[in-house]
Amino acid sequence: MRTRTNPGSPRRGFGLVELLVIIAIIAILLALLIPAVQKVREAATRTQSTNNLKQIGLAMHSFHDVYKRLPFNGSDTMVGKVKYTKNAQAEKVTSGSWGFQVLTFIDQAPLFNKPSSDAGVPVYMCPGRGRPSIEFRKGGGGAWSDYFLNNYINNPVKAETPDNGDTKRSLVGFNDGVSNTVFVGHGNIDLADYKSDSNVAFCSTILTGGTTGTIRAGKNGAANPGGASIQRDSNQAPTLGSWGGPIPARRPHGDGRRGRANVPVWHAKSQWFPDAERQRNSLSAGFMNLPLAA
User: Is 138 part of any domain?
Assistant: First the structure.
């Protein structure tokens, strides 16, 4: 007599071995997928940041074409018969920081014509940091920037002084050429400051000129230049000379702590420079000239 299996009886489930195999396969797939996603995100961040700095570089050119000089960090100093002011004033290119002075050339004329502490500037924000675009604590100070001016441009002798008077530097004054001369770029900041809603160390509102929060520079002036470095954002406090950003250096044997700085050189072509361990900074005639990365 034959015994028939009941078709309604439940089938045998996965055994322990099969379950472990499936878990191992999923883990391997995740191990392959996560780095790929991170690389895609980093590539997108680099592309967006490069586009931001290209726009800023073109704005610098346009400013120079109109005013026959370069923007500077802002000051209360009288130059000739012109009174400059650190605080941004409506429609005044002699007020505020460099970031305020070039607003009309990056499609931000409303903010230039009527300064407001409630408006941010998307072009000035690095997508890799995801920071708020304005300071809104304590009444709000307005827009700030993840990109900083090379203060050697305006006054190479006193580059570490943030509120030097306007020397009205023009492109003609670069006797060693401008194609490799950095004007603005990523400035290193503390990782803990990403979520801050108030001015942080070496990063403050563009509506107030003459501060260390909108520039980067080396130390000791043209006579003994130095102190500039390029490093990835970390939990270490930034310095006046620390360039860099959130994007890691692409190295086969890197440990992820090294970084790259994105800066537009004067032909408006944005370049990435390696970190401090490989960079070869040279300061010619007091201007920061970083060799183009290979």
Answer: yes
pLDDT in tens, 208-247: 999 999 998 866 545 445 567 777 888 888 888 888 888 7
Is 38 part of a structural domain of the chain? yes
Q: Are 197 and 136 in contact (CB under 8 A)?
A: yes
Residue 132's domain spans which residues?
17-289
Q: Dihedral of CA 227/236/129/240: which sign?
A: negative
CB 239 within 8 A of CB 194: no
Stretch among 62-66, 84-88, 109-113, 191-195 having the lowest mean pLDDT:
191-195
If one counts the domains in the chain, the total is 1
Residue pair 152/227 in contact (Cβ under 8 Å)? The answer is no
From start to end of the chain, where are the E strands?
Answer: 78-79, 82-83, 134-135, 142-143, 147-150, 184-186, 215-216, 229-230, 242-243, 261-264, 270-273, 282-284, 287-289
Is 6 domain-assigned? no
For 47, the token pair is: 């592309």
Distance CA 99, CA 206 (A): 5
Contacts of 13 (CB under 8 A, 6+ apart): none
Q: What is the DSSP letter of 213?
A: G
- Whether residue 277 lies inside any domain: the answer is yes
Range list of H helices, 68-179: 98-101, 109-113
pTM of the model: 0.76
Would you list the DSSP string of 127-151?
Answer: TTT---SEE-GGG--EEB-SEEEET
56: number of CA atoms within 13 Å, CB side?
Answer: 32
How far is residue 291 from each of residues 181, 186, 234, measured CA to CA in Å? 9, 16, 24
pLDDT, tens only, 27-58: 888 888 887 777 777 778 788 888 898 899 88
CB-based contacts of 3, cutoff 8 Å, min separation 6: none
pLDDT at 11: 60
Q: What pLDDT is stored for residue 279 in this prediction?
A: 35
